[in-house]
């Protein structure tokens, strides 16, 4: 048996999310089907993070075990051919140690959230960013974001469906950057609560619009109450951007 | 009557090109329909450049004449609402002088060509770039590109369907830039021949792959023969990036 680490990229639009579902297409399901077609083996693929419906991935680490002996290049090429026409690509495949785990070995996760700050509807970036028509103040958003960095109880920014044992997390990084007509929000932590990034971005958008003061981010956090949430940003602007491991390879 | 200058952005994938067609959707047709719905006026829209099927636009100047008195903001918003679900957006609308012409007043046009230089199929950028799996040498491509800049007979890089009076054009700028896993090719000229950018990019890709030497670009140009063309790059990587005018507004 060989344990394989795959790095996946996908367009989240047609999927119910990463996790296999009975009622609709999932990235996990598409990948496991491609593996079955290629190798005849029924596997369970594990991802670093379980993204929601509509969320994209730029570089999602995934592991799975295969009995069949293969080389990484052939595995990636074969899966890419069989994944068509699903918008999922295997960027790389490499063997790792048997105890390496895409989720449990992960030491850090990065997300990118893209806001298109313009009046006109999106064409080329439709489904790739959240459009906000009114001008956003990125500097105010950055001030608000600074209140969330650190070790906090993030109950306010947590979905009611969150399965995490504790609402306490350490947010290592939350940065708001203007890039032309876009606002990019970069978030990094060892792990995130369900909907945490989208909830933080939703509130930051209110700060950007001037409906909230930057300090309202602190008040909202300290309320430790989902009712203190301003807004949950839509999935289409969210990208799983990358994950960090101590010793990624065998 | 007011002459309006609109700046349009579009995703070229669903269109037969800019120009109105009997046998399929066009950007011009979609825009003229939206204008008719909004104002009751049947207009002819003129674009700075007539792009082919599948070619995208980031900022295409277009003009049209309207009897109805409107303000620019309302015109843009109204057209955007009526253009849905076509992936076409009016980025801005401003009144211009009656003799201003999107095509004939244009002093310069810029194109961007995006090559995704990676093995894995495209997901988020599917239909937005030309994927070339083998590594491209951007420096060699830039050397080859330099041979085309200037005043030349571009017969080699001209479609057999080109309606231009003369194959002689002045290419002001042709630059090859590596941006992460992408190669961007920037081209600027007063005007281009039909398929000129795609023909130049196709040949440059052969240089990047090592199948042509940079100097083969010169030989191909000097042949002044369509048969000396190496390859025509696909439409999906091409973007009309912008146009230059002397006095854009009234």
UniProtKB/TrEMBL annotation, chains A, B:
<feature type="active site" description="Nucleophile">
    <location>
        <position position="52"/>
    </location>
</feature>
<keyword id="KW-0819">tRNA processing</keyword>
<dbReference type="InterPro" id="IPR020094">
    <property type="entry name" value="TruA/RsuA/RluB/E/F_N"/>
</dbReference>
<dbReference type="InterPro" id="IPR020103">
    <property type="entry name" value="PsdUridine_synth_cat_dom_sf"/>
</dbReference>
<dbReference type="GO" id="GO:0160147">
    <property type="term" value="F:tRNA pseudouridine(38-40) synthase activity"/>
</dbReference>
<feature type="domain" description="Pseudouridine synthase I TruA alpha/beta">
    <location>
        <begin position="145"/>
        <end position="246"/>
    </location>
</feature>
<dbReference type="InterPro" id="IPR020095">
    <property type="entry name" value="PsdUridine_synth_TruA_C"/>
</dbReference>
<dbReference type="InterPro" id="IPR001406">
    <property type="entry name" value="PsdUridine_synth_TruA"/>
</dbReference>
<feature type="binding site">
    <location>
        <position position="111"/>
    </location>
    <ligand>
        <name>substrate</name>
    </ligand>
</feature>
<feature type="domain" description="Pseudouridine synthase I TruA alpha/beta">
    <location>
        <begin position="11"/>
        <end position="104"/>
    </location>
</feature>
<protein>
    <recommendedName>
        <fullName>tRNA pseudouridine synthase A</fullName>
        <ecNumber>5.4.99.12</ecNumber>
    </recommendedName>
</protein>
<comment type="subunit">
    <text>Homodimer.</text>
</comment>
<comment type="similarity">
    <text>Belongs to the tRNA pseudouridine synthase TruA family.</text>
</comment>
<dbReference type="Pfam" id="PF01416">
    <property type="entry name" value="PseudoU_synth_1"/>
</dbReference>
<comment type="function">
    <text>Formation of pseudouridine at positions 38, 39 and 40 in the anticodon stem and loop of transfer RNAs.</text>
</comment>
<keyword id="KW-0413">Isomerase</keyword>
<dbReference type="InterPro" id="IPR020097">
    <property type="entry name" value="PsdUridine_synth_TruA_a/b_dom"/>
</dbReference>
């Amino acid at each position: 048996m060989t344990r394989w680490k795959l790095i996946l990229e996908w367009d989240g639009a047609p999927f119910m999310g990463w996790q296999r579902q009975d009622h609709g297409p999932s990235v996990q399901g598409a990948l496991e089907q491609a593996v079955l077609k290629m190798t005849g083996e029924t596997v369970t693929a594990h991802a670093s993070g379980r993204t929601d419906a509509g969320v994209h991935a730029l570089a999602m680490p995934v592991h799975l075990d295969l009995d069949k002996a293969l080389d990484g290049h052939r595995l990636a090429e074969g899966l890419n051919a069989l994944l068509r026409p699903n918008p999922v690509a295997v960027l790389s495949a490499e063997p790792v140690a048997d105890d390496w785990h895409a989720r449990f070995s992960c030491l850090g996760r990065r997300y990118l959230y893209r806001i298109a700050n313009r009046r006109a509807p999106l064409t080329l970036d439709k489904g790739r960013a959240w459009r906000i028509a009114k001008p956003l103040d990125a500097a105010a958003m950055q001030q608000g974001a600074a209140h969330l960095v650190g070790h906090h109880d993030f109950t306010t920014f947590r979905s009611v469906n969150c399965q995490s044992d504790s609402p306490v997390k350490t947010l290592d990084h939350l940065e708001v950057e203007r890039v032309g007509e876009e606002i990019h929000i970069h978030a990094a932590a060892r792990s995130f609560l369900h909907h945490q990034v989208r909830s933080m971005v939703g509130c930051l958008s209110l700060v950007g619009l001037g409906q909230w003061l930057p300090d309202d981010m602190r008040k909202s956090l300290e309320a430790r109450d989902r009712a203190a949430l301003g807004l949950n940003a839509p999935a289409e602007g969210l990208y799983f951007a990358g994950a960090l491991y101590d010793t990624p390879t065998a």
